[in-house]
Amino acid sequence: MSRPTTIKDIARILKISVSTVSRALRDAYDVNEETRNRVLAAAAEINYKPNYNATALAKRSTHNIGVILPFITNYYFSTVITGIQEVAYSKGFNIILHVTNDSPERELSIVDNLSLSSFDGLLVSTCSQSDSCEHFARVIREDIPVVFFDRVPNQIRTSKVMQDDFNGAFEAVEHLVSNGYRRVAHIAGPRGLLFTEKRYEGYLAALTKHNLPVVEDYTIYSGFSQESGQADTIQLMDLPEPPDAIFAVNDRKAIGAMLTLKARGIRIGKEVGVIGFTDDPMASIISPSLSTIAEPAFEIGRKSCELLLGHIRKKSFIPEEKILPGKLIVRESTNKG
Asked: Which residues form a coiled coil (predicted)?
């Protein structure tokens, strides 16, 4: 049986030091691109497989990343996970998923019961009703790097990756106004989440720019589900002067709004415009098709994982906040015709 290849074999082939090979394979900052590419090419040629068990013992590294998120069944989070996987697997890291089902009790239990020695770092999207993030602050104090994505807390200083919620909301509402809608309502997410606040601020800014009134009854805070969208829209359409357009915090709530409007015989687009936020595949399938702001979910996953690996490689890595732009997708639900 042939012996497994080692970094010494790569060093001998390239006539460079073992330490340089090791740093190149770790993607260390002090190895130039040409050397790194030569090392990777040689590693592939001789089918070098890193011994992560030995690495873990030598460096107290597990090559495991924990991912804590509210759901895995919806399109947005499944796409984020795909982006995380692409980066993690390319760098020799495994990911271990923990799902909170959007429950603060479950989130706290997961964090309290984590074996932190089993992870090099955590990627986290908090649950919508989590009032305190002290449990994550505790993890950071244990010198475990944490990067938040999508649903991020204000009060913790670490790297965060988000979509541009303010400008996405502004663009969505401005699109409604440009199509002739004047009484624009907003079915928002739960209070206390940063992106709920940013999307509400974008909504207000667009109304203000176009000198449209801000009607208190036109904003409803609730959950993220289709059922919440249905219930919110019933409340809106029962007002003495109901809105002629609805901006929903996500596509599921927007689809719930559309179902309520259909049940009442209200023509979507022609009588009441609806726009969402996500670009879930259902948005293009439902009839009429749903206008929306497409979120860069895959890139959010990629960038979050890249930042976390930066923290893992270099403990003094300065926290960064990345905000990625969305894109307006115009479909039938905002066409007055």
From this structure: none
